[in-house]
Amino acid sequence: MSKALDGVRILDFTHVQSGPTCTQLLAWMGADVIKVERPGVGDATRKQLADVEGADSLYFTMLNHNKRSLTLNSKNETGKEVLERLVKKCDVLVENFAPGALDRMGFSWERIQELNPKMIMASVKGFGPGPYEDCKVYENVAQCAGGSASTTGFRDGPPLVTGAQIGDSGTGLHLALGITAALLQRANTGRGQLVQAPMQDSVLNLCRVKLRDQQRLDTGPLKEYSQFGENVEFGDSTPRAGNDSGGGQPGRILKCKGWEIDPNAYTYFITQAAVWQKICDVIGKPEWKESPDYATPPARLSRLNEIFNEIEKWTMTKTKFEVMELCNPHNIPVGPILSMKEISEDLSLRESGTIVEVDHPERGKYLTVGCPIKFSDSAVEVTRSPLLGEHTDEILSDVLDYDADQIAAIRASGAV
Ligand code: COA
User: Residue 341 C-alpha to ligand 1 middle, in angstroms?
Assistant: First the structure.
């Protein structure tokens, strides 16, 4: 079976998480991803959060599958020549260095266009143009600057960052989409272009419902937020809403049987209007079906705490999986709070290729998250991450056409 991005060659100048998630996705889709790393050092994550002595960390391996590794000192004169040759041979250059680092190496966007007008150059930076454009940024800074932290958590607690890496992996996803669109456009125009996905902008894009709520505040309280029913006045910005659903169908996280000892014995329960009558029957409150205080969504908005307390009395008599089994036949939207342990043991995720076991020469077998996008005509096979410089000679010879003597000279120069 062919792959969606067969024939696309990517010069992967990324490190840590945001850039590598982007290029890993493109590699899964069939692109030849050449990861360029500093000789003897490599991506800093190779050695961060190390769990097996001497082996590449899970941090690195889980973000760099299906790539080839080339070591190259891009500040060495011979290294620069090799890099220029690579720029001419690749379709896409992806980078997430600190602002200005690529320019300091001598590879500005203008220079790259001179070398290869068809090049698509894709960049992640913390911020777009503006007062913070020169700042270095990591995941949680982006979550804070993009509006996520101020709207996550409980009203009476501090802002919270989320476990989902929306700043890094979320930006990587946005960038991958931009690159594939630019490749499609290039097929028509013959020209490359610069694609930029700032982390703040990507987080904000994922938080757009909170900017929606910011504007709704101008016309009155946010009635679907618990604080409305609690008669707590709204301030001038979108508040933290705990586990409120954030949409038009109120929802909450509710305790299930065993919650006293199991930190994940909870369910998410959505009181979707379309199945309200069924919810009343399931939880043993048939009188709510016709009562004017409960029968309509607007009537329920000021009573959400009371309603969810009653539903929780019922969910506490069931396990989170029993809640699922009992509600699903009635089309009541619920979901168990799954722990990472439960997810890692989930057979259906294994069968779909979303959880994959990979073998690695230094660390043995480990689990990873495979490609979450499924294609009917582009197989995704997850292969292990490369060792540092594992493919240096292969790439110098096959991609850049250097002969054995030239490769020896490049090695002698300390460029790789
Ligand atoms: N050969 C020679 N030098 C290399 C090299 C190579 N193959 N690869 C990297 N370098 C150099 C860079 O040119 C830079 O040198 P300079 O400072 O003299 O210009 C240096 O290594 C460090 O790169 P930098 O990107 O500044 O790394 P850092 O570890 O100091 O900062 C980040 C890390 C993530 C904070 C920063 O890269 C950043 O803000 N990136 C953009 C936002 C981002 O992606 N953040 C999320 C990361 S998950």
Answer: 34
